[in-house]
Amino acid sequence: MALLQHTVACFKELIPPLDSDEIWTDRRGVLLEMKSVPWPSPWECRTCYPDEHVIVYSVTPMPERTEVNYEGVWPKNQFVAHGTVAFFPAGLPFVGRSVGGSNCLLRCGIPTNYFEELIQLDGRWTARQLMATADITALSVQSTLRRIAEEIVNPGLASALLIEGLINTLLVDITRHLDGWAHTTPERVGKLAHWQMQRIEERLENLAGGLPNLEDLGDLCGIGSRQLMRAFQATTGTTVYEHIRALQLVRARRLLVRSDLPLKQIAYELGYAHAASFSAAFRRESGETPGNFRRRQRGV
After folding, report:
1. Are 87 and 54 in contact (CB under 8 A)?
2. What are phi and psi of 180, to 5 degrees?
3. pTM of this structure
4. To which CATH superfamily is domain 4-182 assigned?
5. Where in this chain does the record put each HTH araC/xylS-type domain (predicted)?
6. Thinking of the domain 194-297, which architecture would CATH place it in?
7. Which of 173, 201, 285, 291 is deepest in the core (most CB within 10 A)?
8. What does DSSP say about strands 80-81 and 94-98: parallel, antiparallel, or unpaired?
């Protein structure tokens, strides 16, 4: 069956039958849209965002074999996987394709002048830098986007102020991710093998009683702690500490909403020595106490 061809200039034109489920804008011109998208099966499209950089976060799993190729920068048949989070630079046409399906997306449109003041790339993107945009695996980025999506769907007190702050955090984290790729090469910084990342993730599945140190994680991977730090950041775009912190935050929200465990027990499960340390860390990351978050999510 031949692929369904589309030529589009923006996200709305790509799926014209759908209106945005939720739309949010701020004074800087940032546009957030939550959409439920029934992709054709299969499909291929050419897209360009002329006036904005676009961050796409897949709230639900992406359809299988969703891939992108930057025309004129990468070889014609070189497609890479579109991850849970992808960043599309303004003015760069790309081809997207997939076997089709449906999912829910959060689309963040960032005005070019605002974001380029941070990344300082003047619109010039190398093939290697673009490799860093298609699949952003940093948990700090994914956690922030998940928080933005939650706030758009279920806004609380001072929601606009919170979203603006989260957008700032998101842009800084993505800038760091892109900057890390811009200043490294595959020859200078090696990445962790799949089995090494799997061992780390398996160890981090259980944080109860205390966090592992770098030496412990390095031993699991058969490398020293310094090499682990460099290789982990090259692989994920974030540091080991930031990765663990993001994991703690995601699990904390889940436990607060889905369980009746007291804060002391949740703190222990997440590797904190004291409930007060957990509460302070949660408030620093989320802007509210664990108790307030639990009550708000439960509508109390």
Report:
1. yes
2. -60, -40
3. 0.58
4. Jelly Rolls (2.60.120.10)
5. 194-296
6. Orthogonal Bundle (1.10)
7. 173
8. unpaired
